[in-house]
Amino acid sequence: MAEFVLGTDVVTDTPTVEVTITPNAPLPLGRQVFRLVVTDDAGNASRPDEVIVIIADQDAPTAVLRGPRIVGSGRSFELDGSASFDVGGGRVVRYAWTYVGPAVT
Ligand SMILES: [Ca+2]
């Protein structure tokens, strides 16, 4: 486990490392580059190799719909989805509203 700081080396004597991410300090969304330089027991350092990891928002947002409890017949009214929210670094950008029909109960 290691918390990576941009531009700062993390040195291990193990061939793998966990990039530890905390929810309050996520990596930015998009293509993020990581670099490895290995050193042998004689002190010779390799040329760097790099990998690109795509950090993506893979968490669905939550819809929160509010409306008036009672509306007079023939009156217009407003539905409010502004309390909807997203996690995973994204934001809500589209609202699809549907009139489903009479409530069953
Ligand atoms: Ca999301």
Describe this entry's structure for a reader.
This protein starts with 29 loop residues before the first strand and ends in a 50-residue tail after the last strand. It has a two-stranded antiparallel sheet with strand order 1-2. 0% of the residues are buried. The chain has two domains: 1-56, no CATH class; 58-99, no CATH class. The protein is mainly beta. It has no helices and two strands. The mean pLDDT is 94.
Please supply descriptive tags for the structure shown above:
single chain, 105 residues, mainly beta, 2 domains, two-stranded antiparallel ribbon, 2 strands, 13% strand, binds calcium ion
Q: What's the structural domain tally?
A: 2
Low-confidence stretches: none
Radius of gyration: 25 Å
Number of contiguous helices: 0
What structural class do helix, strand and pairing data support? Answer: mainly beta
Secondary structure: helix percent: under 10%
**Strand content of the residues, in percent?**
5-15%
* Major β-sheet annotation: 2 strands, antiparallel
How would you spell out the order of helices and strands?
EE
Widest β-sheet, arrangement of strands: 1-2
How would you state the average pLDDT, rounded?
A: 94
Find the count of extended strands (DSSP E, 2+ residues). Answer: 2
For the terminal residues, how far apart are their CA atoms?
53 Å
Q: List the bound ligands.
A: calcium ion
The gross shape turns out to be rod-shaped
